[in-house]
Amino acid sequence: MLSRLLKEHHVKQAARKEKQENKRKEAIAAANDITQALVEHLNLGVAQAYLNQKKIEEEVKQLHYNMSQFSKQTQQWVTLIEGFNGALKQIGDLENWSRIMENDMKFISEVLEHTYNDLQEK
Known about the structure:
122 residues, mainly alpha, 1 helix, 98% helix, rod-shaped
């Protein structure tokens, strides 16, 4: 009787150990599954952040290129406007010169007329 009770006890104990081992394996598998799911979730966020960073870098390069082109175009405009201002200044200088020449010619003409008239009177 004692030996039978001892055998039953050993059988029950072995069954409990096996059941406990199965539960431990299930817990480890569940922990691995949740860890894998968390890692995948985090990797998705990291991957999205990496893609966003790449897009931002590309946009920054495009913006830098556009700024460079705009700067060149602005410099061309400045050069063109400076040339235009120089041409306007020359036109103003030419107009002023022509007025001076006109006044000088009128003066010379008047002097010549007076001289001619004076010579006619004598």
